[in-house]
Design brief:
This protein is of the alpha/beta class and about 400 residues long. The chain contains 7 helices and 26 strands. It has a 6-stranded mixed sheet, with no helix packed on it. The radius of gyration is 31 Å and the shape is elongated.
Amino acid sequence: MISVKQALSIIEKFKYSIGTEYIAPNKALGRIVSENVLSKTDNPPFNMSAMDGYAVCNKPFNRVYKVVGEIFAGRSMSRKKILKNEAVRVYTGSKLPQGATTVIIQEKTKVLDNNFILYTNNCLKIGQYVRKKGLDFKKNKTIIKKGKILSARDLALLISANCKKIKVFKKPKISILSTGDELIFSEKVKKDSNIFASSLYMLESLIQLSFSECNYKTIVKDDKNKIKKELSKATKSDIIITTGGVSVGKKDLIRSSLIELGYKEKFWKITMRPGKPLLFGILKSKPVFSLPGNPVSTYVCFFIFIFPFLIRVLKLKNNYYKKIAKLTNNIKFISKRESYLRGFFCKKNNENFVKCLSNQDSSLLNMLATSNCLIKIPGKKKYSKNMFVEIILFPPLF
């Protein structure tokens, strides 16, 4: 067996890339930009009115302007230039005529006879209510930097910048194989001997939250020929994840099936709790993570090993959120292995606290759902109330 640190180091040394692709901005929510994005236009693309009112180029001596035209948003005036003592009726978003320096809001004017208006204020502030061309951003300037996870706000920015296609990292495509004669899909009718394949659906969700996609998932019976057939099929994906069948029991057939398919084993078994039987290797150049079948073990192994691997493939910064917190209760058991215990973190009076949940059995999903962090406990160490421990907070929706 190897330590968690050694296992992470082995996984990190495996260099893996899945490439990039071009997509339209309206399809890019949650995608990761693989290069700096430059604007294709100025924004605003022209000098624009910020209010309803009148565009002018000067302040006349008697504060009276002759109205020589009207421009609605999306339209332009046939006479392009505005002269001294002239005004053009404009609206929010209107393109300003050439020479216009200021917009007088309509509340500061009085309409006179014969297309004249009176400016009712004494002071004319040059540039007021004018959104100048390029005020937001200039053409050929970086608007989004490489590595950004695109938000809804970013999509609006990209479309405003006239970016028709953007270069993003491809989403890793991942196959999930859950093994076990007892497992069934959630939509099936459950018999006395059946168990719903909860880990399968949990993994699918975790993959989606990790900027990847599950392109194939299946339940495989404890039959070596069927397992080998599904593993071979899964090599069409970028990454393979299996659950169950990875320990040393009579029905634990994953490792032997992989060996018969010619995979290169990197490690098997880790001095951790839960997750000891974790296996990692390469099958036809594709990384294979074989996780224990109990749902908590599956979750912890994904979070500690697969999530950082995916983050690295996508060139993102590590999203682990580590903190030091004070225990609010005693941890009653001691393990020889490094343990990752389910806990509940909270903050009071600017101080971090964490409660170790009572039952740490690796089959208990209720305890996993109640938790919001993992408490990292080194092997053979005893921790009591008020001692400080290292915790890892779960990312949103994990």
